[in-house]
Structures are given as structure tokens and as C-alpha cells.
Amino acid sequence: MNNSSKPDFRDTQYAFARHIRDPQTHAAPAGIEDRRMGIYRELFYNNIEGFCSSNFPILKSLYTENRWHTMIRQFMVQHQCHTPYFPKFGQEFVDFLNHERDDADDPPFLLELAHHEWVETALALDETTLESFASVEPVDLLNHVPVVSPLAWPLQYRFPVHQIGPDFQPQEPSTQPIYLLIYRNRDDDVGFMETNPVTFRLVQILQTNNGCTGRAALDQIVVEMNHPQPEVVINGGYDTLVQLLQRDIILGTRAP
């Protein structure tokens, strides 16, 4: 019996997926009742929209219902996701905003705000645990090597993303970069610390140079700043290291 006229199953799957993503453009596969297709359309859309709503709540609050749903549909239609896992969809949505979203009516801080919200979710879902780290006692933040938590991310933005909301939507970047340390502590609480260029640089040095003592990192900053009073930087830097330790951004120290 010749089945050459029967649709290939893969072709049917592709047609099904195209219709689910963009029902206004692509017809449903032949032979499937529209009522049944409607259930799938609603299920898929609601899952993706619900995920984006829960992971980007501030971003959503800045859009009307119609514009928000239009953006979610555009995400479904235009973006090719590289993961089937919903917990990783946040990165996919940020990638979509970065590479495919192009709407002159979007706020200028759109991408940075979305990235900031994604980071909070990514840290909350990260499976890394901090309990296994054993610090050298007593903790010596200057003469030993401060260990930066793998769940601490130093980030730099043009807009004050941690302050943006319906009542504050800056249209111009800040005159100075915004430095944030976003982290998850040992109690699995995600928090952030607004900081300055020196603290930001200190964390960068400690992250990239695993054998660097606290004093050596601060000495490097003295050189980079060409600071005339090194002890001022060392003393202030020590206080900063203590604050970072208290927040679990630094987990403790190890011998050099």
C-alpha cells in the first residue's frame, strides 16, 4: 500500500510547533480538531507567560497588559530557545531582548532591568551550596586569601536597576556607573549591595586571582589608583572585607 500521500510525523510535529508559537500566521496540522488545538495553544502560552511574569515582575509592571502579551508572543515567535528547561528560560528571554526585540517605545533600561531580575532568579535557583567551605580560623582577611563566594556576582550597569519601578523610570543613564554585588548567602537569601568602584575592583581581583591575599589585593588597588596614602586604602579596604564577610560575599579565608 502506498502511503506517500500521508504526512510525515516529523512534518506534523513541525506544523504543530509553528502553530503553537504563531497561530495567527501558521495553520494547525490537518485533521486536528480546533478545540483540542486551542487547549494546547492556551497551555503553552500560559506556561511561558506565567514564567516570564514570575521572573520579571518589575519589568511586567511597567507595561500595559496588551504590550506585555505582545512582547511575550514575539518572544515565542522570534526566539529560538536552546534549552527545554523552564528554570533556564530567563536567560533565553534576556537573549531575546538583547538580540531580537526592537521597539522604540521600550524604556532605555529594558535590557539592564531584565538582566538584573534574571540574575536574582539565577542565583536563587543555583544548586551550588556553601556549607562545604571550611575557613581557616581565625579569619585573617589581610594576610590570608579571602575566598569569594561562587554565588556572588559583581555587576555594573548604566541605569540604577535596583531602584526602577512604576514610580521611577529614568530615561537617561546615570552620570556614573552603578556597581552592584548580587549574592546568595548561607541562608539561601538573595540580596544585593550597592557599592563603589574600589569595592567592585577589590572583589574582581579576589575572584580572578585565587592566591591573592587581602593585603595584596589592596596593594594592587593602591597602585592602580596611584593613591598617595596607601594606609588609608588598606584600612578602608579591611573594613570593606569585614562587611563582605558578614554578608557571605566572602566565605572566609584560606592560607596563602
Write structural notes for this entry.
- The chain is mostly helical.
- It has two domains: 97 residues, no CATH class; 110 residues, Outer Surface Protein A, domain 3.
- It is 48% helix and 11% strand.
- It contains nine helices and five strands; from the N terminus they run ααααααββββαααβ.
- The chain has a three-stranded antiparallel beta sheet.
- Helix 2 crosses helix 4 and helix 7 packs across helix 8.
- The mean pLDDT is 90.
Total strands: the figure is 5
CATH architecture of the largest domain: Alpha-Beta Complex
Radius of gyration: 24 Å
Output the helix-strand order: HHHHHHEEEEHHHE
What CATH first level of the largest domain would be assigned?
Answer: Alpha Beta
Low-pLDDT segments, ≥5 res? none
Number of helices: 9
Cross-sheet strand order for the largest sheet: 2-3-4
Question: What would the CATH topology of the largest domain be?
Answer: Outer Surface Protein A, domain 3
> What's the pLDDT, averaged over the residues?
90
State the gist of this model.
The protein is mostly helical. 48% of the residues lie in helices and 11% in strands.
Any key phrases for this structure?
mainly alpha, 2 domains, 256 residues, three-stranded antiparallel β-sheet, 11% strand, Outer Surface Protein A, domain 3, two-stranded antiparallel ribbon, 9 helices, elongated, 48% helix
List the helices and strands and how they pair.
Blueprint: H1 9-21, H2 34-55, H3 57-61, H4 65-78, H5 89-99, H6 110-125, E1 145-148, E2 152-157, E3 178-184, E4 190-195, H7 197-208, H8 214-225, H9 230-246, E5 250-254
Antiparallel strand pairs: 1-5, 2-3, 3-4
Helix pairs in contact: 2-4, 5-6, 7-8, 8-9
